[in-house]
Please model this.
Amino acid sequence: MATVVTAMYGDRKVPISPENVAVEAALLYNEMVARVSDLSDRDEIEAMLPQLRHLMKKRLDQAGVEPGTGKASA
Model:
């Protein structure tokens, strides 16, 4: 998850501290746990990653439009 977070922030040229990478990765992991029925099923997890990236992208985009919302409120 940390790799996904750093890639998403890097793609948008948004700086992020190592501590915040951990926080964002935990948020993504929790979202994945809530959506995946079998955490031992690698195929199901791989299939979920694009949706998790999309959710994070939306959150980052919203935070850019409305500073003080989005990632900070998540």
About this structure: The radius of gyration is 12 Å.
